[in-house]
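INSTRUCTION: Work out how this chain folds

Fields: amino acid sequence; protein backbone structure tokens

Chain under study, with its fold:
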Amino acid sequence: MDDLLQQHRIASYECGADALMRPECFMHFCQEMAEHHAELNGLGYDWGMSHHLIWVETQGDIEIIRRPRWKEVVTLRTNTGKASPLQARRFVEMTDADGKVLARADLMWVLIDVDTRRPMPLKRVQLDLAQECPPLITTPFPTPEEGETMIAAEGVPVEPSEGETMGAAGGVPVEPSEGMSTDAAEGASEGVAAETSEGASTEPTEGASKGKPDEKSAGKSAGASAPQTEVCTLVASRRDVDFNGHINNGSYFIWVTDTLPDSLIPDGEPRRIRINFRRESRRGDLIRLEHTRRGRQTQHLLSCNGETRCEVCILWQ
């Protein structure tokens, strides 16, 4: 498949109070570019519906280098290729008028059966993505100790180990094999999650003061600050639902940043975002958000009725 290139002028409603594009808008651009490119190649939403299938994003690794300004014209580029028997990898890159990279994303997508809500192997629908799609972001996600300085984009590529898909911020996703249900795979994934939500409290953990962080936990040194955790809840609303009938991917990031307490926000802004989508959420679901700060990173576990729905890790710079 050929790359798809498309220009876009940053609109006022895509910007925050600083007149710069909100990070979640790049996620929305990625979704639109994915659908447009798939449609041009006969694999878009209409094709999927004719086979009772929908494309669903399962993982995302996003790097934001510079957020464009209101009215700035950017160029978006995307393509896709086979990543595994179940997954297609898609990259999206955004550049400015001088060709400098503003943001990039590596995304993993699967085909889901509309009726069973389970992933469909690509070969079962005679979908042959012969070309490989290497990731644009070739550096591993920094650990909290490494988060003080952003690792350069020209790092050494890190290949997933056997049984691992892109490497997860809050746990390693286990890919369902043929004959293995999504529930079973998710159960295996949750067994290696980095943190458990049991015992979490709405009060800051030891090392964090109420309302105002102390000098030691202010993120001046990634290795010196103890983890700080706070928990809140929200109800998935009507505006969060897309036409696939579930909560849109971009809403999870919005939920995270809207409910993240000021006391846990490091200086700077999101520069690297890792998202793992575990299960669908729907309107009316009571979502529990567990926010943890470790140095320059914030980690977020979103769950409902004890089931992990989404994991987000953000590096602030």
About this structure: DSSP finds four helices and eleven strands in the chain. The domain at 1-137 is CATH 3.10.129.10 (Thiol Ester Dehydrase; Chain A).
